[in-house]
Amino acid sequence: MNEKYIGLMTQFHTALYWKPGSEGVNCYLCPHYCQLKEGETGLCRTRLNYKNRLVTLAWNNPCAINIDPIEKKPLFHFLPGHRTLSIATNGCNLRCLNCQNHHISQCAPDTNTVKTVTSSDVVDFALRHSLKSISYTYTEPVVYYEYMRDVAEKAADNGLRNVMVSSVYINPKPLKDLLPLIDAINVDLKAFDEDVYQKLSGVSLKSVLKSLEIILKSNTWLEITCLVIPGFSDNPEHIEKMCRWLKSNGFDKTPIHFSKFFPAHELSHLPPTPNRSMLNITNISDTCGLEYVYIGNLPGNKFENTYCHNCGNMVMERSGNTLLSNSLISGLCQNCNHYIPVIQ
């Protein structure tokens, strides 16, 4: 047993989705399928083999609690203009070269100095601040699955919505089990080439696409984000392939956020994405038939706003993460009465 965990035993919470193995325990939460001997933690750094049972170090152990605009997630068609309580724990099951939150995602929960915060504490905080939702974000919520699920259950019981911001590198069963508790999810689709995906994040594109298909068939509101990184995810042919896949698989009305890259983490040597490249993406997505495409991290561009797909009337105006106006009534454009899919 690793000595650093001695004294923390009372904080351990039994994890879900694992089985005893020939040399320890086998985790089935995500496609990494970690096989852990006594005292070992998974690639995510949050799941530990303690006396041949799998426990989570992330239980009641957040590293960040903040109030954000829902547009920051980004979600543009879900509770527009509202604030959300954002929480996260340390850890991640990806190794993204561009991670902006690597100081919390690439370390274990036992390094955290925040005091214990229970699911009831989180929900009470949200209610005290008159918020409508709780968001699981900043790091990868898949790796604090049990904590997220417990908070989400209590949130739902108290009339709060649950939002997940995720790369959805997760196996189908735990995802399907979780989705009934999640009202909205923004999926980080990092690229549309298997080799690039592996190089950029250390995980498989195929698994992420499977998760997207599962989410689309659920009752969970979905939006997708793609960070456009020079030399990785900015290839116009790959972007067109992505857009055509989304269109042909039923995601044509799903809001898609293409975000401008700025140097970060292990890609600090790269330049920001050229503005011209970002705006050219709208031509590609429009040709492919995607109806709600947004350009993020590029202040002042018109693709921060929402337009009626039928008549072209602007129905929601934004400046960055701030909603300036919203003319929709029950999702209807007041100019032509066309329905814009939105949860208000």
From TrEMBL:
<dbReference type="GO" id="GO:0046872">
    <property type="term" value="F:metal ion binding"/>
</dbReference>
<protein>
    <submittedName>
        <fullName>Pyruvate formate lyase activating enzyme</fullName>
    </submittedName>
</protein>
<feature type="binding site">
    <location>
        <position position="99"/>
    </location>
    <ligand>
        <name>[4Fe-4S] cluster</name>
    </ligand>
</feature>
<dbReference type="GO" id="GO:0051539">
    <property type="term" value="F:4 iron, 4 sulfur cluster binding"/>
</dbReference>
<keyword id="KW-0408">Iron</keyword>
<keyword id="KW-0456">Lyase</keyword>
<keyword id="KW-0004">4Fe-4S</keyword>
<dbReference type="InterPro" id="IPR007197">
    <property type="entry name" value="rSAM"/>
</dbReference>
<dbReference type="Pfam" id="PF04055">
    <property type="entry name" value="Radical_SAM"/>
</dbReference>
<dbReference type="GO" id="GO:0016829">
    <property type="term" value="F:lyase activity"/>
</dbReference>
<dbReference type="InterPro" id="IPR013785">
    <property type="entry name" value="Aldolase_TIM"/>
</dbReference>
<feature type="binding site">
    <location>
        <position position="96"/>
    </location>
    <ligand>
        <name>[4Fe-4S] cluster</name>
    </ligand>
</feature>
<dbReference type="InterPro" id="IPR034457">
    <property type="entry name" value="Organic_radical-activating"/>
</dbReference>
<keyword id="KW-0479">Metal-binding</keyword>
<keyword id="KW-0670">Pyruvate</keyword>
<keyword id="KW-0949">S-adenosyl-L-methionine</keyword>
<dbReference type="InterPro" id="IPR006638">
    <property type="entry name" value="Elp3/MiaA/NifB-like_rSAM"/>
</dbReference>
<feature type="domain" description="Radical SAM core">
    <location>
        <begin position="77"/>
        <end position="291"/>
    </location>
</feature>
<feature type="binding site">
    <location>
        <position position="92"/>
    </location>
    <ligand>
        <name>[4Fe-4S] cluster</name>
    </ligand>
</feature>
<dbReference type="InterPro" id="IPR016431">
    <property type="entry name" value="Pyrv-formate_lyase-activ_prd"/>
</dbReference>
<keyword id="KW-0411">Iron-sulfur</keyword>
<dbReference type="InterPro" id="IPR058240">
    <property type="entry name" value="rSAM_sf"/>
</dbReference>
<dbReference type="InterPro" id="IPR027596">
    <property type="entry name" value="AmmeMemoSam_rS"/>
</dbReference>
